[in-house]
Amino acid sequence: MHLEEVAGGVFWVEASHTNFVLLVDGTDVTMVDSGYPKDRDLVDASVAKIGRSLADVQAMVLTHGHVDHKGSAERLRLDHGVAVYCHSGEVRLARGEIRQQISTWELRRAWRPKIFRFAVNAIRHGGLRPEHVTDVSTFGDGEPIDVPGNPIAVFTPGHTEGHCGLHLAEKGVLITADALITVDLWDPERRGPQMIRRQFNYNHDQAIESLDRFTDLEADVIVPGHGEPWRGHPREAVAQARAVG
Ligand SMILES: [Zn+2]
Prior knowledge:
Elements: E1 2-7, E2 10-14, E3 19-25, E4 28-32, H1 40-49, E5 57-61, H2 73-80, E6 83-87, H3 91-94, H4 104-109, H5 113-124, E7 137-139, E8 152-155, E9 164-168, E10 173-177, E11 181-183, E12 191-194, H6 204-210, H7 212-215, E13 221-224, E14 230-231, H8 234-244
Parallel strand pairs: 4-5, 5-6, 6-7, 10-13
Antiparallel strand pairs: 1-2, 2-3, 3-4, 8-9, 9-10, 11-12, 13-14
């Protein structure tokens, strides 16, 4: 497990190809996303590794409702009373009422080795069996969310219709989730700030526009949904992402 404290009390954890974040506030913990369904052991182990227990996890904030981000949400909600949050525009996806995700059929058509590897990994980690969240609380754009650490929602639709980044202003951290990532999902050699491939976006043009939301936020660490944290100002990360397309 890759686990790194990128700022005081903010832990980046890399699950299988997907990141999540543990945000510590006193003895309480907020989890931001949780990998694929089959990342469950890693999710639980990460909490233990920072010296907390699942009983300390008060909330999970979903940046969006894809299978590789909400993997443990329903389980932790049911088994440990963790309150699950997402943007009001993301509820239907979190609950599994709509899809907005590249299908494995589309992936299968793209029979190239790198894409195949991505698909196999997704399937192995439960990508075909999403665990939907049946009870979710909502927040709006620009709101400090009422969970430990009080992250501020940065509404950045495009990847999904209710996708949000999270700004931890006091920590100097910006969680960009899948609006801006630092590794290509099909070609791990392609690193650095970039947009997720067009095929993965519900509305790619909207996703390009949403990058503007990040540029004026103050942060010196960016934690993406996929890839390693990146150090620098969001404005620079956005410029690089736009440049590589
Ligand atoms: Zn993702």
